[in-house]
Design goal:
Layout (H helix, E strand, L loop, with lengths): L1 H31 L3 H27 L10
Helix pairs in contact: 1-2
Length: 72
Amino acid sequence: MAVVKKWAIFFISILVAILIADRLSNSIMVMTGLTGPVQFLSSFILYALFFFAILYIIQKVFRVDFFGFYRE
C-alpha cells in the first residue's frame, strides 16, 4: 500500500505543477501582450522555469523524490 501511496503522490504532484505553471505562464503572457514567435518562446521558457521551481518546492516540502535519478 505504501508503494501505491508514493506513486499517487508523485503523479498528483506533477499534475499540480503542470496546472500551476501553465496558469502562471499564461497569466504573465496575457499581461505582457507579447505575440508571435516571441510570445511562444517566452511562454515556453516561463513554463519550464515555473514547472521545475514548483517541483523543487514540492520535493522540499513533501519529500517526494523527483530528481533522484543520480541516486542508486
